[in-house]
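Objective 1b: paired records.
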Amino acid sequence: MTTAASAMKNISILIIDDDEEDFIILRRYINQIKGNTTFTLDWCEHYQEGLDAICRGKHAIYFVDFKLGQKTGLDLIQESVSNNCEQPIVLLTGAGNQDIDRQAMQAGAADYLIKSELTTEKLERCIRYAVARHEFLYVLKENEQKYRGIFEKTKDFIFIAGESLAFLEVNQVGTALFGYSREEFSSMRLPDLLLYESDGKLIKETLEQSGELNDMEIELRAKNFQVINCVLSLSAEKNALGAYYFQGIIHDITALKNAEKANLQTTRLKATERLVRILAHEVRNPLNNILLAIDQLENIEEKDKIYLDIVSRNSNRINNLITELLYASRPSVTELSETTLESVLEKSIATATDRLLLKKVSIEKDYRAPSAFIMADPEKLSMAFLNIIINGIEASPAEHAKMTISLLEDRAHYTVSIADNGHGIDEENLSRLFEPYFTSKSAGMGLGLSSALSIFESHKALVQVKSARGAGTTFHVIFKK
């Protein structure tokens, strides 16, 4: 494509008119145009011939007579535009008609001229403006395609929003990441995606103060309720009419955050495992001496045997607790087989049936991935889910207790969600939830969730927990397909 300056030095023109005399008159006017521009003129008299020439696009501009036999110049312009012909077309008429003028502009004509009012100056201005406008629109379209490609092919969610942060335009990454269609996004605002209302207030205050927001870490909620960790950037811009809008970029860092949490939890568990092994070794040495000494006490008086039984029974209990601690700190998957998550969940629910009945907790199930096959140890995985379910039961309110267990899938994952409507977990305790021996219960060792996490990690599953005091708790366990 030539630039506007070079295009104006050599302009090829095609005149489509079934009257050769009109062509000769038009040629005379054009030849009288002064300047450095060289004009090359061609003529055709038939509608189809003219249409074929326009579609080939070898001329810089086309002049089309309104009357072309059975069809009109308006028909020719409309058909050319429908065939994606982009060169400028000027409609010529014998007499002025405002209605035809309007129709020509609506059809896509670059200009409208009346033959009886033609002058050299009018033709020169018409040609110059039409060619320059076409060059400008071409560059504009080229830039739009370039930036449209960047907009659609980037790996980040890019969007345009109005002053109220209502979505005006979103790219394909956004629809794939959050599960909403473009039509659904058109009726939504950015705050609708926020997990916490406090983030919305902070975004509003920051934009009001500086007009931009840079790299704010936030948590957003997808259509399937999956929580997505993101970095948000927003900047206020002004369009040609002076109205403000916002350009936004959302970068998904969920995988990075999950990896950080998994590494931290793994580090804690490994440290705990080393500590437990040391403690087990140090405790079992004197414990073995105690048990051996008990075996040697054969001639003890009958009245003292009751105390010996107490020592023996509690020594054995300590020994069993040590074994349990060692197992809880490093459970391992021993037998992997293909199984469905639905069957594993059903087994966990069945095991917890008595507790559910006693606590009057209703269960609502939502399985949308019946074919969620994974390689797993069904027994251990069922035990891990059971620990979460039991935790939810124990946290349930005295009345209207409810637990929701769902199984959803997206392109690459299966997500099991277990939600209760209990008292929730304080923010300061949420980060310690999976620590071995940490518990907020009056009775319990704090090993259930620690053991569950180890089992999930051995199945390469990620665990997310969302909770707030008085708002219940939701566990998301995410398995790769």
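Objective 1b, second protein:
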Amino acid sequence: MNHQRYSAYRSLLAELEHWRLANALDDESHQELRDAAEGLLLSRSGDDAEQPLAQASTAVLGMLALDELDEQNASWLLDALLSCGPRIRPAMSDAA
């Protein structure tokens, strides 16, 4: 964890709380996204971040599929969640 990731985490939590209070986010989704953000924040490496990243992606895509989020907010939310975690290296292709 570093200061930049912690700041991103705090900012995300504030935004999620705002969404929850505005009834734009239900309690279950709020908690699921908070848990994913915390898991990403506490991850030491990209490998550690795989599970919380999968949890975050599933939550955001589910909300998008149910029209609880529009594409712009879903994209912002995924970016904000990624900012809480360690740098993720892109998967290497086996094709040469």
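The radius of gyration is 14 Å. The mean pLDDT is 90.
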